[in-house]
Amino acid sequence: MILKATLLRSARVWPLKRNLSSDLKGVVGLEVHVQIASKSKLFSSAPTAPGPANSQVAPFDAAIPGTLPVLNRQCVEAAVKTALALNCREINQIMRFDRKHYFYADMPAGFQITQQFHPVARKGLLTCQIQRHPTAKPEAIRCRVHQIQLEQDSGKSIHDENANVSLIDLNRAGVGLLEIVFKPDLSSGEDAAALVKELVAIVRALGVSTGRMEEGAVRVDANVSVHRPGTPLGTRTEIKNMNSVRSVRHAIDYEIKRQIRSVESGIPVANVTMTFDTESDKTVVMRDKEITQDYRFFPEPNIPSVDVKQMGINVDRLRNTLPPLPGEQREDLMQRLGLSFRAAMVITSEENFFEFFSEVLLILDSKHAGDAEYVLTCDVLGYLNEKSLSLYQTEVTAQNFAKLILLKATRKVNRQRCSNIIRLMLEDGTDPEEILEKNNWSLIADTTLISRLCDEAISLYPKECNKLRQGKERAANKMLAHVRRATDSRADMVLVKKILLERIHAANALRDEIQIGR
Questions:
Q1: 482 and 359 share a domain?
Q2: Domain Asn/Gln amidotransferase: where (predicted)?
Q3: pTM for this one?
Q4: For the chain, what is the domain count?
Q5: 141 vs 507: CA distance, rounded Å
Q6: pLDDT tens by residue, 484-509
Q7: How far is CA 218 from CA 208, 253, 317, in A?
Q8: Is residue 169 within 8 Å of 104, Cβ to Cβ?
Q9: Are the beta carbons of 501 and 457 closer than 8 angstroms?
Q10: Which of 204, 388, 403, 481 is 20 to 30 Å from 176 at the Cα level?
Q11: How would you label 10-28 residue by residue, b for 16+ Cβ within 10 Å and e otherwise?
Q12: Where are the beta strands (DSSP E) in 305-398?
């Protein structure tokens, strides 16, 4: 947080008008860094689990002279699985590593071991779907993968302005990263956000990464430029280290609009590196890139060429044992259970939702899938977003969730109380039947009581009764609300509406008989 404040003080911020109309179009290429969920680091035996600062560091990670790298087979296998999931046509049986030289305090060796020239894979394709508004049909977005490479992560620099010191934590140094470089096939922040969301869902499904962007497990860089279709691409800017889908969307859209305004004002776009300020929703300059940095790549002398097969990694076997990917899961939910695209997208994109939903449906009959989906994608997701939590951080179990859905399906609890109950279940894992009994939230289905309350409502709202007799069904709302208030929202409103209409029709029939008798 202190580092961000330092950057923002010296940064230039461009004001921007919304809704610019222009024939200039955005061109976006992404570089996504995915932290591999391996037990140990890419080239050392140090654990990757969280710990106190500098507690998870092997001598190699700290660049102690004389220490040598030992390649982690689990990381190579994760890279090959990702390449298969991203439809890479070239998966190299022989891969090599290179040194990329640059000097940061959190990179103690003075270089990063990466794969610039002989990566894991090339020529892939990621296809995702996006629904641009609720009534629109989903459309496909296709983005080519240039290459996938393995590399080391850096440590963390922590700047303390009050003490005027910079601190280094090397726990993250040497953790395995997958850098996935996409071709500039995208044109907006919305498309880029959809692509990142799909990629995160894929690496989670594969078990390659946790995909938790808020923890730095996925970080996105975007190269953004604008041009008129059919003309050369414009000068690009690079937006670094975006760690949420929202940031990806807003940063890229803002930067495209900023560049369009610059070009149309006759101001050249500068080749700069930028960051995204989440408080102002604006991109700000970090540093100038006009002078190309020479990383002086050369082959890593301490790691010989890696033969994937000799490491015991069978590409064909991995291809045949890939789990169902989010696109397949989504199609199954829509075709087999009749879920909407929006619901299927939420279930396959949010962490642990698909596994949880599948477990719930093993307990329930599939006819309850709609109710289960609604509570999960509305009530549960709303609670998680409000509390900034993931499902795995709550106490709810599939067994108790299924119980709640059955209570709702058998009309023992109404929609409002169902929402109240699931929040309590998420907080402490309590059985829904216990919550129902403790709070006295069971639905009232006493026909005698409901009939009396309906008669009260009819006498209170004679004008609405007349409108209802004329076929204006919305006129019943005030009378239904009266019964709801009188029962503290516990009345079975389906039964209430049925009895209310019966009482009104009975009163009509009686009135007609009296008129005929006269």
A1: no
A2: 355-504
A3: 0.88
A4: 3
A5: 60
A6: 999 988 898 889 999 998 888 776 65
A7: 11, 20, 27
A8: no
A9: no
A10: 388
A11: ebeebeeeeeeeeebebbb
A12: 306-307
